């Protein structure tokens, strides 16, 4: 049996998953119960406190990124109006029927859609996925299979998650739209290709 003798870097040392882009491994940074935004420290691979959530809204799913992905020119090319990618790993929201209240875990996630965002001119896609072995969502294959209210809640969260309530006019986020599974898988593939160009394998 092979195994890592030391903790693998979550971004570079883990893989996107053997069945990517349809099913990916998601490294979870925050849960729906976190009033603080945590983000991977790109140097050490540990979670770092990024900031308290800007408003009273909390994410409605577990949220993190897909290892060995990078949002650069190929991802930006898929986003109308994007000047560049945000040069971060590809973000992902994973929907599950059960409460998952731990971060720094891996979740096999079936890609069903995404939210296309611009953050100050940078492409900042949010992939939407369902937990791969969650029987409640086993018939969900595309964004249209999810309840409209669930998708709207996710869109609203990301439209406002960087909002400073004391300066609402300074919101840098623009929601360009949503897309289904085929486009989401194309975004995953583009981010994997951007990663390979930037970092090699």
Topology:
Blueprint: E1 23-30, E2 36-40, E3 47-52, E4 62-66, H1 73-77, E5 84-85, E6 90-95, E7 106-119, E8 122-123, E9 126-131, H2 148-160, E10 173-180, H3 181-199
Parallel strand pairs: 5-8, 6-9
Antiparallel strand pairs: 1-4, 1-7, 2-3, 4-6, 7-8, 7-9, 7-10
What distinguishing features does this structure have?
3 helices; 31% strand; alpha+beta; 10 strands; two-stranded antiparallel ribbon
What would you call the structural class?
alpha+beta
As laid out across the biggest beta sheet, the strand order is 1-4-6-9-7
CATH topology: Inorganic Pyrophosphatase
Low-confidence stretches: none
Q: What separation lies between the terminal Cα atoms?
A: 22 Å
| Strand element count | 10
**Roughly what is the average pLDDT, rounded to an integer?**
92
CATH superfamily: Inorganic pyrophosphatase
* Count of individual helical segments: 3
Strand content: 25-35%
Q: Label the overall shape.
A: globular
């Amino acid at each position: 049996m092979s195994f890592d003798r030391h903790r693998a870097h979550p971004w570079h040392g883990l893989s996107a998953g053997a069945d990517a882009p349809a099913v990916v491994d998601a490294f979870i940074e925050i849960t729906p119960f976190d009033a603080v935004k945590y983000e991977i420290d790109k140097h050490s691979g540990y979670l770092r406190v990024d900031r308290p959530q800007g408003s009273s809204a909390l994410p409605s799913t577990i949220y993190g990124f897909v290892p060995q992905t990078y949002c650069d020119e190929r991802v930006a090319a898929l986003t109308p109006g994007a000047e560049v990618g945000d040069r971060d790993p590809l973000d992902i929201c994973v929907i599950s029927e059960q409460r998952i209240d731990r971060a720094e875990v891996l979740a096999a996630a079936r890609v069903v859609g995404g939210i296309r965002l611009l953050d100050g001119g940078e492409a900042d896609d949010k992939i939407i996925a369902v937990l791969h072995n969650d029987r409640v969502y086993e018939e969900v294959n595309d964004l249209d299979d999810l309840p409209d209210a669930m998708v709207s809640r996710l869109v609203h969260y990301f439209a406002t998650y960087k909002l400073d309530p004391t300066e609402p006019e300074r919101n840098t986020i623009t929601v360009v739209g949503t897309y289904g599974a085929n486009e989401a898988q194309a975004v995953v593939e583009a981010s994997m290709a951007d990663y390979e160009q930037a970092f090699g394998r």
